[in-house]
Amino acid sequence: MNFLHTREYLEQGDIVVVECSHQCNVRLTTDTNFSKFKQSGAHEYFGSFYKMLPARIAAPSTGHWNITIDLGGGSGNIRHSINIIRNS
């Protein structure tokens, strides 16, 4: 499984803003659900498949969150950026 990943400490209400040169899946997951995702298991996440970017996802609670970008099984060279708009 090919994906890009970063882990960030987010406060509730912080906004994750993802830009990508291709339509893609963007997921915001807890550590437990990120582990399930890496094992191709059922997992819960915030986000979706985005045809129109940037993707904007609000952190539902304070803590460490995993941000992943993937092309839904496809591959390719992509340009991307991940920015956080802090709530505080």
What does it look like?
- The protein is mostly beta strands.
- It has a single domain, classed as Sandwich (Jelly Rolls), CATH 2.60.120.380.
- It has 1 helix and 7 strands.
- It has one helix at residues 31-38; strands at residues 4-10, 15-20, 24-29, 46-50, 55-58, 63-70, 80-85.
- It has a 4-stranded antiparallel beta sheet. The chain has a 3-stranded antiparallel beta sheet with strand order 5-2-7, with no helix packed on it.
- The protein is globular.
- The N and C termini lie far apart (35 Å).
- The model has no long low-confidence stretch (mean pLDDT 93).
Which topology does CATH recognise? Jelly Rolls
Estimate the strand proportion: over 45%
> What CATH architecture do you see?
Sandwich
Note poorly predicted spans.
Answer: none
Order of helices and strands: EEEHEEEE
Average pLDDT, all residues: 93
Strand line-up of the largest beta sheet: 1-6-3-4
- Report the helical percentage: under 10%
Number of domains: 1
Q: What is the tally of beta strands?
A: 7
Number of helices: 1
Rg over alpha carbons? 12 Å
Tell me which oligomeric state these chains represent. Answer: single chain
Using the coordinates above, name the CATH class. Answer: Mainly Beta
Taking the alpha carbons of the first and last residues, their distance comes to 35 Å
Largest sheet: 4 strands, antiparallel
> Which structural category do the helix and sheet elements fall into?
mainly beta
* Outline: globular
